């Protein structure tokens, strides 16, 4: 490896002293990059996923372009669902579309258990390849049970999650069976990524903010407790992300997770005022990537100033990069974060 390994991100995850605030971006590999768009002309999303050389190239591209402090495996939260019997396609402009949504206990019992070596060997091969190529940590990831369930029940993206929540309320024992199945899948999938070489893992619960605090505590927290307790055994840092989930942070704080990834609706200052001492990741509004750079810089300064008041801050967006963002702006932003926080 030509360059010395940069472990600043891992140190921040563990709450250790760091020379500057580390930065990476959710969806940092994607359609805003001309090089990625060119690759997509030749390969479908799942084609890229299932070709370790191409997948590693896509994962590594933003690290080289932007100078970020971590890479995140290029995959989709749907990747481990295909082999267990969920018929899913990623439809351009729509997202995951599932032709066999679940509605009964029999549907859930028919879902197979994940065997990562048999079912997703390409993911593990990509992780191994990236560990040879990268000089920054590699983050593995999975979807969380509620967010996966929302697709499996609704059959695709949803605005209100009415069908999912109705299922949860009306069939609590069947819901519990689905949570157990998806919690086990998450644990097995992430442990396999860690064994292959992932140095941190993030669990994406993108849509769990649709739930109120009481429902989260009753229907979701037990599965998340199980997942993070199992991952604790590996010794790698864990991150939990959700959008629009500020009202759930006190519940999240009870979980054995290392870092809470927050969106822009809740400030770092407000999170700390709740008495939460865990590491924090975030939390720039992605839309600010389209603002004049002076405004982007000022908003970023506020986040960095609040983050620096305690150890354990990782700069990120409050959700993923979107196609209209520019490589040049992200590179400039990354450089600014590093320069502004350097000791």
From TrEMBL:
Its EC number is 4.1.1.37. The keyword Cytoplasm applies. Substrate binds at residues 27-31, 46, 76, 151, 206, 319. Pfam families: URO-D (PF01208). Keywords: Cytoplasm, Decarboxylase, Lyase, Porphyrin biosynthesis. One of its GO terms (biological process) is protoporphyrinogen IX biosynthetic process. Signal peptide: none annotated. The keyword Lipid metabolism does not apply. Residues 22-31, 139-155 form the Uroporphyrinogen decarboxylase (URO-D) domain. It comes from the Bacteria. One of its GO terms (cellular component) is cytosol. It is an enzyme of class 4 (lyase). Pathway: Porphyrin-containing compound metabolism; protoporphyrin-IX biosynthesis; coproporphyrinogen-III from 5-aminolevulinate: step 4/4. It is found in: Cytoplasm. It catalyses: uroporphyrinogen III + 4 H(+) = coproporphyrinogen III + 4 CO2. Catalyzes the decarboxylation of four acetate groups of uroporphyrinogen-III to yield coproporphyrinogen-III. Homodimer. Belongs to the uroporphyrinogen decarboxylase family. NCBIfam families: hemE. This is Uroporphyrinogen decarboxylase. It comes from Scopulibacillus darangshiensis. The gene is hemE.
């Amino acid at each position: 490896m030509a360059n010395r390994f940069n472990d600043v991100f891992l140190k921040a995850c563990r709450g250790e002293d760091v020379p500057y605030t580390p930065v990476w971006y959710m969806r940092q590999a994607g359609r805003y990059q001309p090089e990625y768009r060119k690759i997509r002309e030749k390969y479908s999303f799942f084609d890229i996923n299932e070709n370790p050389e191409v997948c590693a190239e896509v994962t590594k591209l933003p690290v080289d372009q932007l100078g970020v402090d971590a890479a995140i495996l290029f995959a989709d939260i749907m990747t481990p669902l295909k082999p267990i019997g969920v018929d899913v396609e990623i439809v351009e402009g729509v997202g995951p579309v599932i032709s066999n949504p679940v509605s009964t206990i029999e549907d859930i019992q028919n879902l197979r258990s994940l065997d990562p070596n048999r079912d997703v060997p390409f993911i593990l091969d990509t992780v191994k390849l990236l560990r040879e190529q990268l000089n920054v940590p590699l983050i593995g990831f999975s979807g969380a049970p509620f967010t996966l369930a929302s697709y499996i029940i609704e059959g695709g993206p949803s605005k209100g999650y009415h069908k999912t929540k109705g299922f949860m309320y009306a069939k609590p024992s069947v819901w519990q069976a689905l949570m157990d199945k998806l919690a086990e899948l998450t644990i097995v999938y992430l442990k396999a990524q860690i064994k292959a070489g992932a140095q941190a893992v993030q669990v994406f619960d993108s849509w769990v903010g649709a739930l109120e605090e009481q429902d989260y505590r009753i229907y979701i927290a037990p599965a998340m407790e199980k997942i993070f307790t199992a991952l604790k055994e590996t010794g790698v840092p864990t991150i939990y992300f959700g959008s629009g989930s500020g009202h759930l942070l006190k519940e999240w704080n009870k979980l054995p997770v290392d870092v809470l990834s927050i969106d822009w609706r809740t400030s770092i200052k407000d999170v700390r005022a709740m008495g939460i001492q865990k590491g924090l990741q975030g939390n720039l509004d992605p839309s600010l990537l389209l603002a004049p750079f002076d405004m982007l810089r000022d908003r970023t300064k506020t986040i960095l100033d609040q983050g620096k008041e305690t150890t354990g801050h990782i700069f990120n967006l409050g959700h993923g990069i979107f196609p209209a963002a520019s490589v040049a702006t992200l590179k400039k932003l990354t450089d600014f974060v590093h320069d502004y926080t350097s000791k």
